[in-house]
Every structure is written in C-alpha cells, then in structure tokens.
Specification:
The structure is a single chain. With 87 residues, the protein is mostly helical. The protein is 72% helix and 0% strand. α1 packs antiparallel against α3.
C-alpha cells in the first residue's frame, strides 16, 4: 500500500500537515466572515440613534474578529501539534 511508504518524520510531511490545517482554518474564517456580513452591519431605523447603531456594529465586528482569532489560534495549535515528531 502507498500509505505504508510515507515518511512521516520528514519535514515535507510536517509541512503538508500544517498547510492542510491552515487551509481548513482559512476556509472556516472566510465562511464565518461571509455568513455574518449582514449581521455585522445593522440598519439604522428611521427614528433610531445612529450612535447606538454604530456601537452595535462595532461590538458585532469585534465579536466576529474575536471568533476569527480563536479559530486561527486553534489551527495554529493543531498545526504545531501535528508537526511535532512523535516518539
């Protein structure tokens, strides 16, 4: 079988593992950003306070950025763990 001929301690294998994890994280962040697009930009009601709407928008934007950073940190941790040699 081809799987048995993989050189798992090699740098190329570790690099492939890291690239795979980072690609999955990038897709997750892009989907998060796209799916929350309308939620992050609330419309100001006709009699509403624009300052209140701006505060809501900033709060939602920061929450989305926080989730993106959390996804990236998890991916970085997973990449570091998967690239460490097992022994």
């Amino acid at each position: 079988m081809i799987v048995s001929s993989l050189d798992t301690p090699s740098q190329e294998y570790a690099f492939g593992q890291v690239v795979g994890v980072v690609c999955v994280a990038a897709v997750a962040i892009a989907l998060l950003w796209r799916q929350t697009r309308s939620w992050r930009s609330p419309a100001t009601p006709a009699a509403g306070d624009p300052a209140q709407t701006l505060r809501e928008q900033r709060k939602r934007h920061v929450l989305t950025i926080g989730l993106s950073v959390l996804i990236a940190a998890g991916a970085g941790t997973q990449a570091a763990v998967s690239s460490c040699p097992r022994g």
